[in-house]
Recover the amino acids of this structure.
């Protein structure tokens, strides 16, 4: 029974290590008019235009979206749209 539990924990930890933004996505800071990066606690705190969405997962997105990461507002762009 213990080895089964250890295996489940190992799989969970390994899966969590792979969590996060897709390595193929591009991230750029969301800047205010003075050129400073907007600070945030949650993605909802970040300014965005009417056609920009909030990132709903940490695993990448098919469309450009805004997210809060480590108290900084970031624009996440899918890899195929990166320049």
């Amino acid at each position: 029974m213990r080895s089964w539990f250890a295996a489940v924990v190992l799989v969970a930890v390994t899966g969590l290590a792979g969590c996060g933004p897709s390595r193929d996505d591009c991230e750029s800071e969301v800047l205010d008019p003075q050129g400073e990066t907007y600070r945030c606690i949650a993605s909802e705190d970040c300014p965005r235009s009417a056609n920009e969405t909030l990132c709903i997962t940490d695993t990448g997105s098919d469309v450009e979206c805004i997210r809060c990461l480590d108290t900084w507002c970031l624009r996440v762009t899918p890899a195929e749209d990166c320049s």
Observations:
- Residues 1-82 form one domain.
- Confidence is low (pLDDT under 50) at residues 1-23.
- The helical segments are 2-17.
